[in-house]
Amino acid sequence: MRIDIITLFPELLRSPFEASIVKRAIDGGKAEIHFHDLREFSLNKYKQVDDYPYGGGAGMVMMIEPIDKCISKLKAQREYDEVIYMTPDGETLNQPIANQCSLYENIILLCGHYKGVDQRVRDHFITREISIGDFVLSGGELAAAVFCDSIIRLIPGVLGDESSALSDSFQDQLLAPPIYTRPAEYKGWTVPEILTSGNTPAVEQWREDQALERTQLLRPDLLED
Questions:
Q1: Which of 88, 106, 162, 210 has its CA 20 to 30 A from that of 128?
Q2: Phi and psi torsions of 159, nearest 5°
């Protein structure tokens, strides 16, 4: 998988890709991450990429020309499955979206800033808009990092145990059940006996029951569908 990230602050994005599972995926050739500084595509010597909105109002707007130049250059080199704009008013990222996007080969991510991008960018270049929640960040870089982590970990061979991702919360519209590890007793707090019984079918049933119970208690909205 190749992910090209268009950003005003590439330095802000580098560290999430230099550690943990994502770095392992990059080092293992499972994923490529490329940063593109939008200011390098500016039309003047001042590296301007934003301007005042037509009609007045507070804030600045990211201009269409630099974005067009950057996206057009990338698309001239390869085909892309999606050109995704990270924006608070996009569809909310969830596990099914992550599952789908993890199957793509090439993705462009555009990180928004200021009051957003010229609407013509969204109308003519963007194929999908994704949000990580109903709140506003100072820029789309952190949202892009979250999105990348959510899909890269699903690429076959990235996780040490590929079945681990299948038991994550939300994969089956349920929250994950409680989990425990050694010691079996700590300060009088004990692990449920069923988990140390060695009865695999009973353990699996307990986990299913617990997952359903936790979902009903904490996220009943997941069960509405």
A1: 162
A2: -80, 145
pLDDT score recorded for residue 213: 97
- Which sign, positive or negative, has the C-alpha torsion 100, 146, 5, 92? positive
Q: What is the pTM of this model?
A: 0.89
- Domain extents in the chain: 2-152, 169-223
| Cis peptide bond N-terminal to 183, omega within 30 | yes
Break the chain down into helix, strand, coil percent, rounded to 5.
40, 20, 40
% of the chain at pLDDT higher than 70 = 95
Q: Single out the residue of 224, 206, 208, 216 nearest to residue 176, CA to CA.
A: 208
Architecture of domain 2-152: 3-Layer(aba) Sandwich (3.40)
Which residues, at least 6 apart from 76, have a Cβ–Cβ distance to it below 8 Å? Answer: none
**Topology (CATH) of 169-223:** Trp Operon Repressor; Chain A (1.10.1270)
d(C-alpha 46, C-alpha 36), whole Å? 18
**How far is Cα 27 from Cα 19, in angstroms, rounded to an integer?**
10
